[in-house]
Amino acid sequence: MPFKAGLELTELQNMTVPEDDNISNDSNDFTEVENGQINSKFISDRESRRSLTNSHLEKKKCDEYIPGTTSLGMSVFNLSNAIMGSGILGLAFALANTGILLFLLLLVSVTLLSIYSIYLLLVCSKETGCMVYEKLGEQVFGTPGKMIVFGSTSLQNVGAMLSYLFIVKNELPSAIKFLMGKEETFSAWYVDGRILVVTVTFGIILPLCLLKNLGYLGYTSGFSLSCMVFFLIVVIYKKFQIPCYELELNATSPILSNSSAHEHMCKPKYVIFNSKTVYALPTIAFAFVCHPSVLPIYSELKDRSQKKMQLVSNISFFAMFVMYFMTAIFGYLTFYDNVQSDLLHKYQSKDDILILTVRLAVIVAVILTVPVLFFTVRSSLFELARKTKFDLCRHVVVTFVLLVIINLLVIFIPTMKDIFGVVGVTSANMLIFILPSSLYLKITHQDGAKLTQRIWASLFLALGIMFSLVSIPLVIYDWVQSGGSAEGH
């Protein structure tokens, strides 16, 4: 049978290497696979041919090109959605414990560093062809790389779910009291945040998580982003509706009754260092993590290129920088030192329809967003265990067990700052600093032309390691000193 000229690459993947050594020296012979291209050269050794073909097939697992269909504008919206989350509620607390100037410096730094880490991630994706973070880790570092990426992304998603359920725990009791016409001090078992979060989890979230696929739930991220924009508008509006003297009158400490204390309380501070300052950087880092979503969004970008996706990242991060800073500064200038790690919880909904509306909108948004994150964590867990075939019993058991664990954490974690702190110094640090730079250094270790870029990536990696070495002990020290006090929530 005559050999077909111009053999397609897909046919090569299905080609069986011949068992005999009688192979002619023609244009179909090759010696190596480099950057997805086959270089023609005669090899007489049969085992070398077979080994090289298998190497090429393994490479092509991350090198299949599927054209994207999403426009640049929609990609910006999707990435902004991925960045935006509950971290926005903790930024005013971070500002209150760093001061305006120090907070602005940290926010600008994390924004620029996040953009640089996206650049490294896109370079790694271009070099390997991988469009999934876990596959990229496996391609570069093997199974350990896949495990580390899985652990980091899962911890990030679990942290986000915890923060969302913490919002339900904090905000739903106030909303119910308002609807019942009760005072904020009213207490009954059915308005206990712990009972309510368990009820919501197993009454609403569990049935949604038991669905075989997400379906319409994928669209709730758009609603969630709209709620956060609405929240920002309300924060700005309330700054001019809540005068500082009301904060003084509501304060219980008698020392605040004199004018000097009033002036001190209502005066913004620009640089602050205290025991809570350590939570600022992890909280900001947590608010900017979107890295598990970058490559899937990149893969869906129409006429995609590294430059085009970098533009999407730059626009998205700049938009979120503006939104984050506006929320933090207006939240801080409303409550000053009295701000809490959950900014929304500071606004009293008594006789205030606007606050009740934004509270209910955020509650509904986070309830519908939890299953989306849960699906990601569970599917990654099944993928890791190589149990991708759907099994109803396993599906139900794993879902139930994971939700029980998450609820126990929500009930016993005292404040949202603890969630932001732990996730910020662990998974957020890994996803922003350590993993992108490590992957880049490994991929380019033999490329002498990229020495300058490798130096910058090495410094970036060192910064991430230093961040972990400094922040983790300080967060633990604050836990020991504060004894897990709950900020009066």
Automatic annotation (TrEMBL):
Residues 69-473 form the Amino acid transporter transmembrane domain. It is a multi-pass membrane protein. The chain crosses the membrane at residues 76-96, 102-124, 145-167, 187-209, 216-237, 278-299, 311-333, 353-375, 396-413, 419-443, 455-477. The keyword Membrane applies. Its main location: membrane. The keyword Flavoprotein does not apply. InterPro entries: AA_transpt_TM. It is found in: Membrane. Pfam families: Aa_trans. One of its GO terms (cellular component) is plasma membrane. Keywords: Membrane, Transmembrane, Transmembrane helix. It comes from the Eukaryota. GO terms for molecular function: L-glutamine transmembrane transporter activity. This is Solute carrier family 38 member 1. It comes from Anser brachyrhynchus. The lineage of its organism: Eukaryota, Metazoa, Chordata, Craniata, Vertebrata.
